[in-house]
Design brief:
mainly alpha; 0% strand
Length: 74
């Protein structure tokens, strides 16, 4: 799976995963990662609704990763 440097940094900071580890994930592990990133996306959208309305960079990056991981499943 190809992630941007920003996405790889996010995955390392949030979950401690390296690109090599993710490349070797099973389908179940990828599904779990998708769920975890989706949870972050939702949390950040809710926070934006409570604040100034702008989704944080953290939320945007999580959403980008969810999009990539769900596209891979198709």
């Amino acid at each position: 799976m190809k992630f941007s440097e920003k996405e790889l940094e996010f995955l390392k900071n949030e979950f401690g995963y390296t690109e090599n580890q993710i490349d070797n994930f099973s389908e179940d592990e990828l599904s779990d990662l998708t769920d975890e990133c989706f949870d972050i996306e939702v949390d950040e959208v809710v926070a934006a609704d409570d604040g100034n309305g702008d989704v944080s960079e953290r939320g945007e990056t999580a959403a980008d990763i969810v999009t990539k991981l769900t596209a891979k499943k198709r």
